[in-house]
Amino acid sequence: MRDLVPDPGPELLRGLGASAGTAVGPAYRLADPPRLPAPRPVGDPEAEVQRAWAAIDAVCADISRRADAAADATSGEILRVQAALAGDRTLRDGVAQAVRAGHEAPHAVAAILAGHRSALLAAGGLLAARAADLDDLRDRVVAHCLGLPMPTLPDPGCPFVLVAVDLAPADAALLDPARVLAVVTSAGSFVSHTAILARARGLPTVVACGRALEIADGTVVTVDGTTGRVSVGSGEDYTPISAPPTAPAAEHRGQTSDGHPVALLANIGCAAELTGVAVEGVGLFRTELLFQHHIDPPTLAEQVQEYAQVFAAMPDRQVIVRTLDAGSDKPLPFLREHDEPNPALGIRGLRVARRRGDILRTQISAIAAAARESRARVAVMAPMVTTVAEAAEFTALCRDAGLPTVGVMIEVPAAAVRAAEILQTVDFLSVGTNDLSQYAFAADRRSGELADLLDPWQPALLSLIALCAAAGVAVGRPVGVCGEAAADPAFAVVLTGLGVTSLSMSPTAIPAVRAALAAHTVEECRAAAQQALAAGDPATARAAVTRI
Ligand code: PEP
Ligand code: MG
C-alpha cells in the first residue's frame, strides 16, 4: 500500500554560489561562541583593564602564530591582518575607557568591537564583509577573559559539510579539504574570507543562505557552489567517503567530441590558487583580491612581485590579468568612493581611472614589467567597460606600455549591444555574466530573493552573450565567458554552440565542464544553443538542453 503521506522530497535552500563545485555529505554546525555572563560591578578597574589587555595580547599572539603556520599565503595574509586588528591601539584604549566607565573586561571588549563592527557594516561592500573578523576577535577575547576554550570546527569522525553563520579567518584558514567537503553559511558574501579561502581550497561553498542554520546536525545535504543551491535530505544513496575529490590529474584541452577546441581556463585571485591544479591557462586573474587589505595603493614593485608569481606558474600558457575591479561590492580601502548614492552604478571598475588614472597606469606598468620577465602569454583586460571610446583608450594605454594583447570585459548591456564595434579596437572580449546579469536584469547580484532573475539561463542574458559571440565569430577574434555561469556543464555546451571560444571558471569546476563538452559534437552544441535561445524561460531552456 502506498504511503498516505507523500514523501516531501528534498528541501531546496538558496544562497549565493561562492566557490564552484558540488559535494554531498552530512551537515555539522560550527559550535556557538561563548556567551557573555550577566554583568557585575567592577571592583578594581585597573586590575580589570589589565585582565582585558592580557586577553587581547594572548589572542593577538595566538592569531600571529596561526598566521606563521598557515598552509598557504592567502590564509597567512588574512590572519596577519586580523592580528593587526587585535593589536590596534584604538581597541586597547577603547576597552580601557569602557572598563573605567564600569564595564567588566568581556563586556567592555564586546561593546567596543560592536561599535567598530557597526561602522564596517554601514560602510558596506568589502568592509562589511570584514565584520566576521571582528566577531571572531570578540569571541576569542571574551573566551580568553572567561577562561573558556574557543569553539573549533566540529569533528564528527567523517568528512562533513560545515554549516555556520560565517567563518572567521582563523576558522576558515583551518578548512582542511580532507575533513570538510563543502561550506554553507547563513551570512557572508562572495568577497568574505569564507568565500576567498574556500575558493583557494576548491571547496564548494554557498554563502548568504538565510535558512542554513535550520539544517539539523547529521542531515545529508547536497551543496552546489555553482548555482548557490543546497538541497537538504537529498542524500539517500550517500555513503561516507574518506577522501575529498582530487584536483584534475592531468592537463588536457577542452574540446567537443569532434575536436572543436574551447579553452578551459581558471578564475583565480592569487598564485596560491594554482598550486596543484592542471589548467590550460588563467582566463580571469582578479587582481583586486591581492590588495583588499591595503590601506595605501600597492607600489609598482609590490605589484610586479605578485603578478610574477602567477606568471611563473603558467609558463607558455595564457594568463588574462584583469585590472583592478574596485568599487561597489569590491571596495578597496585606498580607493574609497565618497558621496555615491548608488555605488553599483557609480565609479567602479575601469571608471575609477576617471579619478585615479595614476593607479591604472601604475598597474599596467607592473603587469608589463612582470610579463617581460616571464614565459607566460600575458593578456590584460579592463572590467566594467561601457563604451567603444573607453575600450579604445584602455587599449592604447596598454599597447603603449608594451602589452600587445588587450581585451575588455562585457559586463554592461550597453557594451554587449556594441560588441562588434568594440571588437574593432580590442583583441578579445570576455563576458562577465555575474555583472552582465546584474545590470541587464536590474537585480543586485548579491540578492538571494532575486536569484530567479539572476539565473544565467534567462533567455535575455543568452541573447546578450549571443550578440558578443557572433561579433567575435564574424571577425575571427576570441570571445570568452568568465562569469560563474561558465562552470555549469550544460550551460557550457550552450556557450560553445553560441561561438564562445573559452570558458573560465574555478579550477575545480573544469573536469565536469570538460566532460560535458567531450560528450557532444559542435553541431549538437549549436542545436543546444538554438533551443536555449528559443525558450521562453530558464526552466524551459534548461530542460530543452538536457534532452539533447
Ligand atoms: C563577472 O562580473 O561576471 C566577473 C567575472 O567579474 P566579478 O565576478 O569579479 O565581478
Ligand atoms: Mg564583474
From TrEMBL:
> A GO molecular function for this record?
kinase activity
Gene3D superfamilies noted in UniProt: Phosphoenolpyruvate-binding domains (3.20.20.60), Phosphohistidine domain (3.50.30.10), PtsI, HPr-binding domain (1.10.274.10)
Q: Which cofactor does the UniProt annotation name? A: Mg(2+)
- Ranges for domain Phosphotransferase system enzyme I N-terminal: 14-130
Keywords from the UniProt entry: Kinase, Magnesium, Metal-binding, Pyruvate, Transferase
User: Record keywords: Kinase included?
Assistant: yes
The residue ranges of the PEP-utilising enzyme mobile domain are 161-228
**Tell me, what's a Pfam family for it?**
PEP-utilizers
The keyword Transcription is annotated on this UniProt entry = no
Q: Which GO terms describe its biological process?
A: phosphoenolpyruvate-dependent sugar phosphotransferase system
User: Which InterPro entries does its entry note?
Assistant: PEP-util_enz_mobile_dom, PEP-utilizing_PTS_enzyme, PEP_util_C, PEP_util_CS, Phosphohistidine_dom_sf, PTS_EIN, PtsI_HPr-bd_sf, Pyrv/PenolPyrv_kinase-like_dom
Look up the domain of life of the source. Answer: Bacteria
Q: Which residues form the PEP-utilising enzyme C-terminal domain?
A: 253-519
Family, according to the entry, reads as follows: Belongs to the PEP-utilizing enzyme family.
Name of the protein this chain belongs to? Phosphoenolpyruvate-protein phosphotransferase
UniProt organism field: Actinoplanes friuliensis DSM 7358
